[in-house]
Amino acid sequence: MLRVIGCFTQEHNFLLTMAAAVVCMLGSGLSIRLFMRARRARRSLRRIHIGLTSMIAGATVWATHFIAMLAYDPVVEHGYEPVITGASLLVAIAGSAISFSIAAEARSNWASVRGGATLGLTIVAMHYLGMSAYLIPGRIIWNPQLVMASIILGVVFGGLAFHRVLQPLTPYCWLGGVLAMFLAVCLMHFTGMGAISIELDPTIVVPPQVISDTVLGFLVLSLVSLFLMLGLATFLIDVNMTEQTSSLLKDAALRDPLTGLPNRLSLEQVLADIRQGLQEGEDFPVAMLTIDLDLFKEINDLHGHAAGDCVLRAIAARFEEVLDSPFEFVARTGGDEFIALKRRYTRIEDVRAFAESLRARILEPVPFNDIMLNVGASVGFAIYPDDRQSLDELQHYSDLAMYRAKADPHEKICRFDAYMDQQSRERITLLGDLRQALSRDEFQLCYQLQNDVDTHAVVGFEVLLRWLHPERGFISPEKFVPIAESSGLIREIGLWVLRTACFEAASWPNPYRVAVNISPQQLIQPSFVESVSDILIESRLDPEQLELEVTEASIIDDQHNTLKVMHRLKTMGIRIAMDDFGTGYSSLSTLQAFPFDKIKIDRSFITDVHKDEQRAAIVRSTMLLGAALQIPVLAEGVEQADELEFLKRQRCDEVQGFFFGRPMSVADARQIASQPLVGKNCPVPISAASSIRH
Ligand code: C2E
Ligand code: MG
Ligand code: MG
Nearest CA to 600 among 640, 662, 554, 551? Predict the structure, then answer.
């Protein structure tokens, strides 16, 4: 030990020794880092990485040895045999390649130690080969214990070089590998140098063709600079590429691939940042806007998904133009749903203006092939902290406001208010009660007359559902049917209505027609046609007495299937009426494609039709359409004699409305149905049937 320390302190130049240590440390660091990258590289690229890493590691071991040799002063003339000196470099590189290859494939700690020990042996082999190139006018006498110690130190520390690098316990374990490689090279070298003593012999002459210290210094310097720069450049390029790739991947994970807008994940991140800012004491308002496209589904259904995609892309691009501060943000969070955020605004009007500009850009037509596509938008927004004290609840409330905007044809941008919250809670309570209504026998049916326009004769009844709530009394179907539809309960309730109406109509002595409302959900049920058929068989009702009223929503949902269902129903003899005509999106094309037996013009067009020019024009054109397609037309909601007179002039076929009677009880309907069904020419007096509620 003392011999080694003495050799290190007395026989070596301090500055050059330090230079050797620095080169060794830098080279070891680079080698281990490059090796870690090589391990992560794809198999095809791994060999190239390992090759490069081995060159750097081999050059490090070699250069450290020879810089340290330059630091060693034997006080006699000396030189280096060129071939062996060169061969020692090759041994260092080749040995490193073997050891890194073993370590790169290592699956266990033991295997990685084997790789490291091979590196240690490489250091030893290079050292002693390098020493055999060292020429002096004398003989080198080796101390066998120190030689053995140098070999053990090289192999032991070399063995640790990859140990925790491959299975790290902390992110800094690789530093242990660097230190182990550094110690393996340095301890091995200086112990090995401590093992020598020189016995001068004037008969031994140092030949003139050997490499001198100056040439060796130049060689080592060039090689070290070259390899270290090469390694550093590779490392930096690799790091850069990895960072670029990971930032690209991260970007892709946060963006919606179709529109390029931020996605829900991105929204969550922005919200998390805002939340953190607020927790750290920042104080600013946040407005969240839920934007839902209107009629988007229709575009997909009518023009195909390419058209829908085109609309979404165009809208996204326009949104990007609207955003003009880092405090404005918009993400696509669903098929046709977007969520926008606005922070740090001063007045609530700023939020409204933001909502208006986003909506205005949506309403601009989108060119697609040869046509222009138009969509609408409903926007709801809620504000933190005014509307909600918690940021987490904000989306729920902006959603509620959006639903309100969707339901309101006039106010398409709605701010959340407490009433909406109350409504939403009420809806949840109502849904709970609705689930039990059937089993508690709380539903009733009432019947509304349908009359011939010319003769006023009763031609049939529309069956209308009523819910007698134990505490709230009668609840309008306009209120509970949408809840039953959205929860799926309508399928069960709808079948009850159909069954009850069919049994009732079958019990009448005269074959008055019954029209039953069918919701879209029922129509898409695979067993729907079978259920209708079963009910007809069980009730023994003549299928021609049954009319099913469907709205356009049923058809738009799944045109192909609906058409098939309608044909099957018609084959059974059932009639099908298109309800609420004029309120949908594509009434004309739907009428052409589907085999309707009747058009029911919505009552919103009938109110004051004799006074309102616009409504009159719509009704007139519907009549023309009915005539052209040979489909009879029924006008809903006739309340006044003037309206009836107008409809008569327009050759409307049938009417339904308070003018002839409000929805009546089953007992009243039975009474009317007990009278013989009269033809067009036999008018019946206007029914004074008592209404139970409309
Ligand atoms: P609808 O199928 O268009 O039914 C006609 C509605 O207009 C009925 O409202 C009826 O009472 C009302 N009405 C009829 N004549 C007049 C009039 O002269 N003036 C006014 N102001 N209203 C008139 P109701 O019974 O409240 O039903 C509303 C809607 O609820 C129905 O519209 C239908 O869409 C739905 N609905 C009712 N019963 C059922 C059902 O059994 N199943 C399904 N799926 N929906 C139903
Ligand atoms: Mg109806
Ligand atoms: Mg209707």
Answer: 551
Neighbours of ion ligand 3 (CB under 5 A): 579-580, 636
Rounded to the nearest angstrom, the gap between the alpha carbon of residue 666 and the centroid of all alpha carbons in its chain is 52
DSSP 12: B
pTM over the 0.85 mark: no
Residues ≥6 apart with Cβ < 8 Å to 136: 74, 76, 77, 78, 198, 200, 204, 206
pLDDT tens-place string over residues 361-402: 999 999 999 899 999 999 999 999 887 777 778 898 999 899
The helix or strand, by DSSP H or E, that contains position 649, with its residue range, turns out to be helix 641-649
Contacts of 409 (CB under 8 A, 6+ apart): none
Distance 650 CA to ligand 1 centre (A): 24
Bridge partners (DSSP) listed for residue 466? 444
Instruction: Give yes or no for a contact between 407 and 326, defined as CB atoms under 8 angstroms apart.
Output: no
Neighbours of 530 (CB within 10 A): 11
Please return the burial class of 275, using the count of CB atoms within 10 Å of its CB with bins 0-12, 13-18 and 19+: middle
Q: Tell me the Ramachandran region of residue 608: left when phi exceeds 0, alpha when psi lies from -120 to 50, beta otherwise.
A: left
CA of 284 to the centre of ligand 1 (A): 48
Judged by its nearest atom, the ligand closest to the C-alpha of residue 601 is: 3
